[in-house]
Amino acid sequence: MTSPSRYAQSLAVIEAELRARFDAAANEFGQSEDAAPDVALGPARDPAHGDFASAAALAAGKKWKRNPLEIAQKIAAAGTDRLPGVGTIEAKAPGFINLRMAQPFWGGVVAEALERGADFGRSDALSETGPVLLEFVSANPTGPLNVVQGRSSSLGATLAGMLRFAGADVKTETYVNDSGAQLDLLADSLYARYATLCGVPTAVPDDGYQGDDISEVARQLQARDGDRWLKAAQAERRAALGAFARDVIVEQQRRDLENFGVVFDRWFFESSLYAGGKVDEVVDWLLQRGVAYEKDGAIWLRSTQFGDDKDRVLRRSDGRPTYLAPDAAYHRDKFERGNRYLIDIFGPDHHGYVARISAIAAALGHPGKLEVLIAQQVTLKRGAETVAMSKRAGHVVTLREVVDEVGKDAARFFFINRAPESQLIFDLSLAVEQSTNNPVYYVQYGHARIASIVRKAEETGRGALLERARRGADLERLEHRTEIALIRRLTDFARTVGEAARARAPHRLAEYARDVATDFHAFYTECVVLGDDEALSSARLSLALASKTVLASALTLLGVSAPDRM
RNA sequence: GCGCCUGUAGCUCAACUGGAUAGAGCAUCGGCCUUCUAAGCCGGAGGCUUUGGGUUCGAGUCCCAACGGGCGCGCCA
pTM to 2 decimals? Predict the structure, then answer.
């Protein structure tokens, strides 16, 4: 097989050459060695300007205190020599450098997509970040996951996938809060349901867990153990029932997430920190380091030293740790396992906690190595009507219910479709609608249409054409406006994933997937793929296959299926 | 009161971290199926980016203030 021109490689060569030109220009303008700006080649905003553009001359103009247009002109004046694949290079006011690519470049992109398949778009853009641990969901084991946790899990799973796609080494983890008063309350709530089942009517504690799911756990407990816990001592009963409830509920959460396409590398149990003596250990360690101190009989973290607005209690005056101590132990453990960078995704109700946990990372000796993302709140609607969700109203809508109602694909897409820090209005009736209105189907439809073309080729005895297309022959025939627009979009896949991952903005990938679908649908409408001209048909089929690959990769990262038929 | 998020088309949201004429989807108006899936395509209309100052060649984006929305502020988690 002949080696096709590699677009990623040629883009890198182009950037390197432009960088060299900037260095030379810097010299000429009497600037220091490192004065040249980042070239940062991106897609041109308006195709009329060209295919790729750089605003580097504008940045240089500011830095060098020179006219940016003059700089851009100097860079462009060197022409397209040593710029592989570039047709023309132009400087445009106020100082943009615009590149227009020659046809062989576009053919090369399609060839590479065909060759690399599911790996097309992978890069090593973020490979230098070192091992990253991404923690999200981290639910209490007291009931089913809620809608915000659904959003967090979509964000976390897609972000992890994107970071990996861009070359980062990432593990995912969720933390189960299975210690302390909360678990006792869970045990007591379970006991109330259980005792009632066993014929001893017992009230659930005032602030206990009322949900039906606890009653279900009680039934399972009774089925396993009969009524033996009615007579047990409280301490023994609490320990046993707490663990039982936790195991059942965590298992259910795990299944719900799996149905949602979210699987963690590890479920980390808070109780394991206590069991291993890690909680006392970290408190002592912090005391020894002088970043914690004793006051009023309690032990305090000197968090104000690390940007928090007040110091926080680690261990109460009665000797019991606050939640902060096991969290410190947990984050210490994360670092000790070799992770160099931590990302935590919190729900909207925990944003007040960000300064604290950041202070902990700093106190542990890793300042700036913990990043916290907030998944903002979700409001459910059905058309114009807001779905009531307050705890006081008695029912909190669960992730499972949403997935049951709208399906995994729509739920994953809708959750990821907005910037994490934006509040999300989730219209359930739109998400179930199987129509034009639904952006999920729009993207999936693009994929299904391509699969349909392939089927058609097979069914009409054009297997040879299909083979030819898979080899990427005839790619020089691609020149139609919609063909080039589509290829330009495919070209941007790697950069989009890398930049969106870097910016923690996975919603951009959803937008990108929609854009690919839009460009494909336009191409499909304008250009007949399976026509009479064998070479042209082959070229267009190649492009369709390349598009299918990118759509499938993007949908997979989003956790949405890529169907062959709809 | 203090802190974080937020305010962009009728609605839901983008705008790649300060760049070119602020873009999509829905809704609305008008066109396109004898051809590979019309769950599609093409076009129109719709904006003082909440308001007022500032920074600079350039601001939806940065700074200050005001106003509106959400959330948080415990030796609870």
Answer: 0.95
